[in-house]
Structure formats: C-alpha cells, structure tokens
Amino acid sequence: MSGKVLKRIAEALERLAPPPQPAPLFDAAEAFVWHVDPDRLEPVPQVARVPLGLLVGVDRSRDTLLENTLQFAQGLPANNALLWGARGMGKSSLVKAVHADIQARGLPLKLVELQREDLPSVARLLNLLRVRPERFVLFCDDLSFSHDDQHYKSLKAVLDGGIEGRPENVLFYATSNRRHLMPRDMIENERSSAISPSEAVEEKVSLSDRFGLWLGFHACDQDQYLAMIHGYCAAFGITMPDDQLRAQAIEWQATRGSRSGRVAWQFVTDLAGRQGIGLPQA
Q1: pLDDT tens for each residue of 202-212
Q2: Which residue has the higher pLDDT, 193 or 280?
C-alpha cells in the first residue's frame, strides 16, 4: 500500500475521531461542563444559581451537604451524595449554591457538570482530573436509568473507582426524582423476568447504596411556598402589600397544579418583570 493511501486513511481516521483538546486553564473558571467528541472541559463564565440563604424548607439537607462539601474542600474525608425527591424543590440549586458558598470561603473547589449520556466517558474524565491539585465535585443533574440502560455500570467507576480507586480529589453529587435511580415497575419487572431475580435487582438497587449521603426532598406546604416567595421578594427589593402578594401567589400555584421552589421562583420572576426589577439567572 502506497504512502499516499496510508496518509489519506490516517487523515480520514483523524476526522472521524478528532484528538482531545488540550486541558483547560483551570484557573480560568470555577465551573466546567464535560463534553465528548472530542473530550474537553468547557469553562462556564457564570454559573446560574441563587444564594444559599434563599433556599427555604431544605434546612437539614442544606446543612448536611454544606458540611460534607466543606470537609472535602479542606482535604478531609467526604461522601458522594444523592439528592432525590420531589421535582422543583431545589436539589440542583442546592448543589450550585453550596459550591458558591465554598468558593466564597476561598477554597479552590471546582464544579464539573456531567451529562448522564456521557457517563461512559467518565474514566477519561477521572484520569484528567486525577493529576490536578484542585478538588472537583462532579455533578450529574436529573440522573435516572431505564431497565435496558447500561450507563449505570459506568457510574460505578465514579462511585467505586475500579482498581485504581476514585481519585482522592474528586467527589460525585447527583440529583434524581427517584431514590433508587430506576422506576419501581422496572425493578419489579427485572425481579419477575430474571433467571436470578434477587441478584438482578440487587445490582441495580445497590447503585444508590454506593452514595454515602441520601438527602430527601419533599413537596412543600403552603406556608413554606409563601415563605420562599417572601424571601425572594425581600432579597431582590420586590414590594407588594402582603394580602395581594399572598392572593396572587396562591392563584399562581393553583394554575400550575403544584407547589414547589421552582413554582415560587417562576412567580417571583413574573412579579419582578411586572415591576421592572432584574433578577439573577437561576
């Protein structure tokens, strides 16, 4: 085979599988998003988040996650964390707010967001971070798996680390609406159809057990919902008579059919817009 043919083959292969980009300047940002094809950590200039003090109704989870993250940022032992429960109750907001609080203390903690679809590449990401002096929280939002989804096996590489072990400077936080990361009916289906039902189910349910912290988030009541709104209004200078604010807030949640931190923020966003007041992106 001629040299020209070999060169064309090499160039074609390079186009199909471009080499990974150079490692980023980790001092350039406090947060990054992991992408593949090619592998790269993309800096996030400004993280969308709300201050930790504005997260109402999640006091225990807030204090626990903050203490765990602080230990990790200080080089002390800490646990991977699974934040599970009701939609819109501040799971991902808490992770980002805790990271901001640690940053404000002057500790060099970086946040790296990882999509569930990119979990098969996590070993390459860990190898990139393993050699760095900084400490990293890997963050996977809205994590869940279907019955035929093999991505959960890649997650074990983060939680267990394989033969090398999880890098000492990497911690993993995930949010999910499901405590066991799989729908209950799929777990039951696995139990009924597998040759060894107990082993098949155990492999999937035990994935959640690999998280040292389980932090539950539950739907808020009306008092908590209104407290969230009052907290946001006070923080951002939004004014309205209490009786009007209460009536409009209750009407807003009634049209949505639910109460949550997300619904409270959406109401405050609408109210701020009507009053010509700017809000941070959250």
Answers
A1: 555 566 778 88
A2: 280
What is the pTM for the complete model shown? Answer: 0.80
DSSP structure string for 119-163: GGGHHHHHHHHHT-SSEEEEEE-S----TT--HHHHHHHHHT-TT
Q: Are 253 and 267 in contact (CB under 8 A)?
A: yes
Q: Which of 173, 194, 217 is the last residue before a domain boundary?
A: 217
Q: Quote the CA–CA distance of 60 and 215 in Å, as a whole number.
A: 9
The neighbour count for residue 26, using CB atoms within 10 Å, is 17
Angle formed at CA 259 by CA 256 and CA 260, multiple of 5 degrees: 115
Residue 11's pLDDT is 62
User: Which of 66-70, 144-148, 172-176 has the lowest average pLDDT?
Assistant: 144-148
> Are 148 and 96 within one domain?
yes
For residue 36, give the nearest of 53, 51, 50, 19 by alpha carbon: 19
Task: Note the pLDDT of residue 27.
Answer: 83
Residue 196: predicted pLDDT: 47
The total number of residues shown for the chain amounts to 282
Q: Say how far apart CA 170 and CA 137 lie, in whole Å.
A: 6
The answer to whether 211 and 159 have CB atoms below 8 angstroms apart is: yes
Amino acid at 176: S
DSSP-derived secondary structure letter, 118? G
pLDDT for residue 146: 64
- Quote the radius of gyration of the chain (alpha carbons, Å): 22
Range of the domain at 212: 26-217
Residue 201 in tokens = 């189910």
Q: Are residues 52 and 190 in the same domain?
A: yes
| Per-residue DSSP letter, 243 | H
Confidence of residue 120 (pLDDT cuts 50, 70, 90): confident
Question: Residue 156 maps to which CATH number?
Answer: 3.40.50.300
Q: Which residues pair with 109 in a beta bridge?
A: 135
